[in-house]
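Thread: Newbie trying to understand structure tokens

Hi all, I'm a second-year student working on a class project, and my supervisor (Dr. K.) asked me to get a predicted structure for one chain before our next meeting. I've only ever worked with sequences, so writing a 3D structure as a token string is new to me. If someone could post the tokens and maybe explain what I'm looking at, I'd be very grateful. Here's the chain:
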Amino acid sequence: MPNTPERPRRVRVQRDGPVLVEGPVEVVGEDGEVKVSHRFTVALCTCRRSRTMPWCDTSHRRREPRRGDDTR
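---
Reply by user tm_fold:
Sure, no problem. This is what the structure looks like when written as tokens:
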């Protein structure tokens, strides 16, 4: 569903996971490159481990906990 002034675009932030954005979206990278997705919901990587940046490929699930990290 497109965003409107009455219904803004929804963004979901998840602990230890990707940012979910209602699509379609255009993502502008640090280098100015624009990536487009026409999907219904888009998962944006926040751990910077994805091989398909800026899209999440679930690499965050394979993260090794650091010493002192609490178990979640």
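A couple of things are worth pointing out once you decode it. The radius of gyration is 14 Å. Strands lie at 11-13, 19-22, 25-28, 34-37, 41-44. Feel free to ask follow-ups in this thread.
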